[in-house]
Amino acid sequence: MERFPDKIAVAVFAASSMPCVGKHMGIVRELMRERAPKGLLMDSKMIPMNNKRGPGTADLTLAKLLMTPGSQFQDDPMMKDDKLLTSANYGSVKRVCLIGMGDDIKELHRYLITLSPGTEVEEIAGADHNIMCSKPRELCDLLAKISSKYD
């Protein structure tokens, strides 16, 4: 969006981190740590166990293989660059933020939206953080509505 703003009709953020002009990219992660409800963020080494015996050896091995580092780019200098996103380019692209009303961090999304004036907000009732899985039909209808509006 920073490089080719004239080729983008509208940017849609569906329950995702929306970067802000004049703020570094890592601010979303920092705000998440500060503002997320306690207990929401799991430690990267913690694997939930729902049964008394714990997972079987094969399940535990598979889970460890599938784990990825959660902060791959945290120390990247670009993540701390306040001038990376400019008002003239990134800031000129129209943005729509979709919020699932059942999302545990919807207040964080709303705060990030206040940092990006002019962002349109659409709410999806009954959707959680993963809107695509919880309300796929409503998401599809809303994306069609947005695309026709900004066509």
TrEMBL record:
<dbReference type="GO" id="GO:0080031">
    <property type="term" value="F:methyl salicylate esterase activity"/>
</dbReference>
<dbReference type="InterPro" id="IPR029058">
    <property type="entry name" value="AB_hydrolase_fold"/>
</dbReference>
<dbReference type="GO" id="GO:0080030">
    <property type="term" value="F:methyl indole-3-acetate esterase activity"/>
</dbReference>
<dbReference type="GO" id="GO:0009694">
    <property type="term" value="P:jasmonic acid metabolic process"/>
</dbReference>
<dbReference type="GO" id="GO:0080032">
    <property type="term" value="F:methyl jasmonate esterase activity"/>
</dbReference>
<dbReference type="GO" id="GO:0009696">
    <property type="term" value="P:salicylic acid metabolic process"/>
</dbReference>
<dbReference type="InterPro" id="IPR045889">
    <property type="entry name" value="MES/HNL"/>
</dbReference>
<protein>
    <submittedName>
        <fullName>Os01g0934600 protein</fullName>
    </submittedName>
</protein>
